[in-house]
Write a structure and sequence with these properties.
446 residues, mainly alpha, globular, 0% strand, single chain
């Protein structure tokens, strides 16, 4: 039978559920974003703008490996949500056990590869010139903790699938607070520089992982037996198919960072890499409410789809699209208004400060329509349709952005790189809207 917490996903009013699921998720993402933001400010002010660029070079590699855990978490959580909606607790528990085994095997394997090819990967992602030694220090230390990060990303999604978003929020708050505290101790007082920033990040992963172990042992309703850790091909294939959406998204993000970093270095040098690093941090920080609502949407959609509550699914989509569009429009207005003081927060380097606001405004130009893409891809993922979810995820930065970012600089220079962001968003939104509304039309008639 379904757990009491999960059962509420099919009973409470949609607006109440979306609020209950989204607010903790948003707070958690906000805490993580503030953590990354403050971390970047500390590094920029106490070490220098090259250190900001170095971290931005390393993050795509470490986050891609960590995203393996997120992919397994989101893919498995879709199965868990639908299994709980169908009152099949046994399948939910077996899925969680397989998620744990897959996360350990995959993340450790990728970390070993990442450490072996360290000198090749860092320059490939733009860590050239004086940025390379700083990036290498950060990369090696952070990679040691990435398997724990993978477990954290996986576990956080399982907690939400159980219908316990507050605990998922705590799992994001604790490492954020510890990272900021350790940054101050290691960088400011111990004077460890990049090594201090790296150890602060790695130890914050350990804090998060420790809390999630406590949750699954003491608080979780998914009680595991060792037999459930043995991989079952049917479940592995379904987790892999759905998780591939998330993993592909992060892989494309990593490729985008690789391409943009190298193009910016070619057209403008290290200063442009620092500008892009600031923009990357703001993309996560400013969009935290939209991303939180998207996270809150997933378990509600999956549960009610599994329970065949058609009207609740349709009502959820209508409400969620409205909410994320309004939120994204406010973000758009805020970035355009405060772009100049935002740049000054991160560094005292006059060259970086002068170039950041203009680029920031261009990159955020298509923000009001971003929610359609996120919710469209999330819906297909929640209902177990991996291929449409994967294709819609790839349209945004894969099919449109990457070709544009190669073509436009030939005509507009560095401005062309920034212009590729909103143009790619606009084209991807048109495609996502078409497939989402066609799917919903067929769902109504089914």
């Amino acid at each position: 039978m379904a757990t009491p917490k999960a059962t509420k996903l099919g009973q409470l009013p949609i607006a109440t559920l979306l609020l209950q699921q989204s607010v903790p998720a948003s707070i958690g993402i906000l805490a993580m974003s503030i953590n990354i933001l403050i971390d970047t400010i500390f590094v920029g002010q106490w070490i220098g703008p090259d250190a900001i660029a170095a971290i931005n070079v390393v993050l795509p590699v470490s986050f891609f490996i960590g995203a393996v855990g997120m992919a397994i978490g989101i893919g498995g959580s879709s199965i868990i949500s639908r299994a709980l909606g169908e009152a099949n607790l046994g399948k939910a528990q077996r899925t969680f056990g397989n998620q744990l085994t897959m996360t350990v095997l995959c993340t450790v394997s990728f970390v070993l590869i990442g450490l072996f090819f360290v000198d090749q990967l860092i320059p490939l992602f733009g860590g050239q010139g004086r940025i390379f030694p700083l990036a290498k220090i950060y990369y090696v230390i952070v990679l040691y903790g990435v398997p724990v990060l993978g477990f954290c990303m996986m576990g956080n999604n399982v907690v939400r699938a159980e219908g316990k978003p507050k605990y998922a929020m705590y799992a994001m708050l604790l490492p954020s607070m510890s990272n900021i505290t350790l940054d101050i101790i290691f960088i400011k007082f111990f004077g460890w520089g990049m090594m201090g920033a790296a150890w602060a990040t790695t130890l914050s992963y350990v804090v998060c992982g420790s809390y999630l172990v406590y949750f699954f042992v003491v608080r979780s309703e998914l009680r595991l037996h060792w037999q459930q850790l043995l991989l079952k091909l049917e479940i592995v294939k379904e987790i892999g198919g759905l998780g591939m959406v998330t993993l592909s998204r992060q892989a494309v993000v990593s490729v985008v960072v690789l391409v943009v970093n190298n193009l910016l270095f070619e057209y403008g040098g290290e200063a442009q890499l620092a500008v892009y690093a600031i923009i990357s941090r703001m993309l996560m920080f400013a969009l935290f409410p939209v991303l939180g609502v998207t996270q809150g949407f997933l378990p509600i959609a999956g549960y009610n789809y599994g329970a065949h509550n058609k009207e609740r699914v349709l009502a959820l989509i209508r409400l969620t699209l409205l909410v994320v569009t309004v939120m994204a429009s406010f973000v758009f207005a805020a970035i355009f208004t405060w772009a100049d003081p935002i740049a000054q927060l991160f560094t005292s380097d006059t060259d970086v400060i002068a170039q950041t606001p203009y680029a920031l405004r261009i990159v955020f130009a298509a923000t009001p329509i971003l929610g359609i893409q996120l919710i469209g891809a999330a819906y297909f993922q929640a209902i177990g349709k991996a291929i449409p979810a994967l294709l819609l995820t790839l349209t945004r930065q894969g099919f449109f952005f990457i070709p544009l970012v190669f073509i436009l600089p030939s005509y507009f220079g560095i401005d062309g790189i920034w212009m590729a962001f909103p143009l790619g968003e606009g084209l991807a939104t048109i495609v996502t809207a078409f497939f989402l509304f066609r799917e919903l039309k067929n769902y109504k008639l089914a």
